[in-house]
Amino acid sequence: MPLTFLPARCAPALLALGFLLGGCDAPPAESEQDTAQKLHGTWLRETSDDAVRARRILVLQPDGLFRESVRIVDAAGAITEQEHAGTWIHDGTNLKRKYTLMNGQPPSRLNVPFATFEIRFETRNEFVGVDHIHGNRIRYRRVAPDTRP
After folding, report:
1. Phi/psi of residue 12, each to 5°?
2. For residue 126, what is the enclosing H or E element?
3. Three-state DSSP class for 54?
4. 3-state DSSP call for residue 4?
5. Which element (helix H / strand E) includes 123?
6. Which of 6, 7, 76, 99 is the most buried (most CB within 10 A)?
7. Exposure b/e, 7-23, CB count within 10 A at least 16 = b
8. Where are the alpha helices (DSSP H) in 6-147?
């Protein structure tokens, strides 16, 4: 039998297979672009230990730029404020930030700071991240754009 008849004979089986596979109720996987769009906006991270409290406001812009404002209060009440900036991407798993300004100054070319966290959204307005290199775990929640650190 010529090979040209094979598709016609197999069509019912292929059609049935298509119906079976197409009937799965699994939700479609979220795309990298969808996650990156969910990250656009203003995020707050608060940390504290016995002596120091810190608030970080991270603004992830759609154009791939970010700003980070930090306010640190030590045990004596002294306040330190910092402003950082750079570029960011989401690679499908990780939120990656490359700092181009650290407290308003370009970082040393020998030590360009990066921050990479595997992230997972707990809600649309909250995500957690894990830095597998340093073992840090972070939590950010979405806030209004005019929120101060």
Report:
1. -60, -40
2. strand 126-131
3. strand
4. helix
5. strand 114-123
6. 99
7. eeeeeeeeeeeeeeeee
8. 6-22, 32-39
Kindly tell me if the per-residue pLDDT of 29 is higher than 70: no
Six-digit token string for 10: 């197999």
Tokens of 7: 């598709």
**32-86, pLDDT tens digit by residue?**
568 888 999 999 999 999 899 999 999 999 999 999 999 999 999 999 999 999 9
Per-residue pLDDT tens digits for 81-112: 999 999 999 999 999 999 999 999 999 877 87
Contacts of residue 61, Cβ cutoff 8 Å, sequence gap at least 6? 40, 67
Question: How far apart (Å, rounded) are the C-alpha atoms in residues 81 and 95?
Answer: 24
Task: For residues 130 and 136, give the distance between their C-alpha atoms in angstroms, rounded to a whole number.
Answer: 6
Q: How far apart, in whole angstroms, are the C-alpha atoms of residue 70 and residue 149?
A: 6
How far CA 98 is from CA of 17, 49, 76, in Å, comes to: 47, 26, 32
Question: Which residue has tokens 């069509």?
Answer: 11
